[in-house]
Amino acid sequence: MVRRASAGTGQRRKKGAGSDNPGTVQALNRGLGLLAALAQEPQGVLLTDLAKRVGLAASTTHRLLATLEQAGFAELDDMSGLWRVGVRTVSVGSAFLRGRDFVALARPLMRGLTDASGETSNMAIRRDDAAVYISQVESSAMVRAFSKLGDRVPLTCSGVGLALLTMESEDDISALLHRTGLPSFTPKSIDTPAKLREVLALGRSRGYVIDDEAHALGMRCVAAPFFDVHGETVAAVSISGPTARLTENRALELGSVVARTAREITDRIGGRPPEGFGVD
């Protein structure tokens, strides 16, 4: 039994899956807490480990999991003994996404990104074999990057385009190259399939990509993708600025800021990054 701290001790009980708040249903709170914990373990988790994590007895955890399993929100792998979220969570997550405008949700985070970096931030989605700008927060600097909403840029020589490609399969990349080749805008544009794959592999490990004057001389861009509930790429967010201000070292420093912003957008829309993305 969990005992409340005595009055005057100055201690407060730590809230977990078993927390009991006035006006709430304890069993529902616990079940939702378990579901949230399961969502953090895409490979699955043992019942005993899950019980310890949420602060419940193993017997209580098992009863709650059995109820979630019956409703399709949890599933047990009989061979490994691992519990995972169930298929029913997909329809709930999809309903959430259908009712959310990710551009509007991301807007405050893009403002924060522009404030933190001093550079223009953009959002782009993939349409066919191009990246299309759909949102922007301009820098207040006199010299700044600017792209009109609706502008299309090649996937292989733009920051947002490369970010949108980071999690594409090898077959998809090969098919893209067959259709479009490697458009060249500057002497620094990616000019070989091997170089493209190297840039994408680095982007997957870092969680962000850098366009180093590949689309426009004198301009750099740092971009990162964000993901939906299935781990599929939704769009990319970026910062762009003149190389005199966005130096190579500063671009690397801001890479983690852009990647963190993309991760926050992913969280805000109820998504999750795919396994192996941003591991470094």
From TrEMBL:
Gene3D superfamilies: 3.30.450.40, Winged helix-like DNA-binding domain superfamily/Winged helix DNA-binding domain. Residues 88-271 form the IclR-ED domain. One of its GO terms (molecular function) is DNA-binding transcription factor activity. Residues 1-23 are annotated as: Disordered. GO terms for biological process: negative regulation of DNA-templated transcription. Keywords: DNA-binding, Transcription, Transcription regulation. InterPro entries: GAF-like_dom_sf (IPR029016), HTH_MetabolicPath_Reg (IPR050707), Tscrpt_reg_IclR_C (IPR014757), Tscrpt_reg_IclR_N (IPR005471), WH-like_DNA-bd_sf (IPR036388), WH_DNA-bd_sf (IPR036390). Residues 25-87 form the HTH iclR-type domain. PANTHER family: HELIX-TURN-HELIX TRANSCRIPTIONAL REGULATOR, ICLR FAMILY (PTHR30136), HTH-TYPE TRANSCRIPTIONAL REPRESSOR ALLR (PTHR30136:SF24). This is HTH-type transcriptional repressor AllR.
